[in-house]
Amino acid sequence: MELRHLRYFVAVAEEENVTRAAKRLQMRQPPLTQQIQILERELGVQLFHRSPRKITLNDSGRVFLDEALRLLKASEQAIAKVRIQARGCRSMLRVGLTTSALLHERTQALLHAFRLQYPDVEVRIEDGATLDLLNAVDDESLDVALIRTETTDYPGLESQRLADEPLVVAMPSTHRYTQAKSLNLADLHDEEFILPIQKANRGMSGTLIQNCEMAGFAPRVRHEPRRTNAALGMVATGMGIAVVAASVRSFPLQFVTYRPLAPRSSYVAPLNLVSRREARSPALAGFLGKAAELAEIPLSVLSTPTLFRSSGS
């Protein structure tokens, strides 16, 4: 079995159609079908349920898909590390971050672990607004970005979910709700919101508006800053409230108080790792592989101080 067989299998499994998988792999359909059959004979099991219009994984196929993805990610990491070391010079990885993404423990653990494993890669950080970062990844000014929204408007990009995070309400320290144990969205119906309005009302802002409407009201948006730190500054001056990711609480401001949204709320803040679908550098392949590896580790373990201690310390 070769790595190419795993790539063929993953493409067919994800596309659920041999013709689409062949197009994705830039090969003809008959050779792809033949290679899948060879793989099944070598394994001694059938991996798919087949019908004239669709091909889907059976139980054996689902088990094998998990292992195939793990092996492919491991091979990408190994290749990336060898290529970086063989060059004998520092490679560069350009990483874009929003304020709230940088404050998340999983982001911090990822950057720390990557720098330990790939010391020859120079990591350059650029903080910015979500749409600016998405555009920068799309036009290859950045290699990757950690953001709080999806990438549906960018067909050339792909997104990897790293975490879902609870939300909190940031309010002036003189607000009537500062002593509340938790809040429901309906409690905020009379408030003035500080809300970054994203393209076509997508992302966290669009989701907040939808959830407010489901709670029976349309939020009164009074200010539309581009970034979270600006929104928090406005909250501190008493200009309104903001709904932000819980990790933002680690960014203390003297006149801002945070209160959680009720635990039963299904509205959460995603943490997404965004990159281009093609043209991955060895450094980027290593970064994506490390992100996938750490995504399986609970936050309580990632927060352990000794987890990423280098062997020489």
TrEMBL record:
<dbReference type="GO" id="GO:0032993">
    <property type="term" value="C:protein-DNA complex"/>
</dbReference>
<protein>
    <recommendedName>
        <fullName>HTH lysR-type domain-containing protein</fullName>
    </recommendedName>
</protein>
<comment type="similarity">
    <text>Belongs to the LysR transcriptional regulatory family.</text>
</comment>
<dbReference type="InterPro" id="IPR005119">
    <property type="entry name" value="LysR_subst-bd"/>
</dbReference>
<dbReference type="Pfam" id="PF03466">
    <property type="entry name" value="LysR_substrate"/>
</dbReference>
<keyword id="KW-0238">DNA-binding</keyword>
<dbReference type="InterPro" id="IPR000847">
    <property type="entry name" value="LysR_HTH_N"/>
</dbReference>
<keyword id="KW-0805">Transcription regulation</keyword>
<feature type="domain" description="HTH lysR-type">
    <location>
        <begin position="1"/>
        <end position="58"/>
    </location>
</feature>
<dbReference type="InterPro" id="IPR036388">
    <property type="entry name" value="WH-like_DNA-bd_sf"/>
</dbReference>
<dbReference type="GO" id="GO:0003700">
    <property type="term" value="F:DNA-binding transcription factor activity"/>
</dbReference>
<keyword id="KW-0804">Transcription</keyword>
<dbReference type="Pfam" id="PF00126">
    <property type="entry name" value="HTH_1"/>
</dbReference>
<dbReference type="GO" id="GO:0003677">
    <property type="term" value="F:DNA binding"/>
</dbReference>
<dbReference type="InterPro" id="IPR036390">
    <property type="entry name" value="WH_DNA-bd_sf"/>
</dbReference>
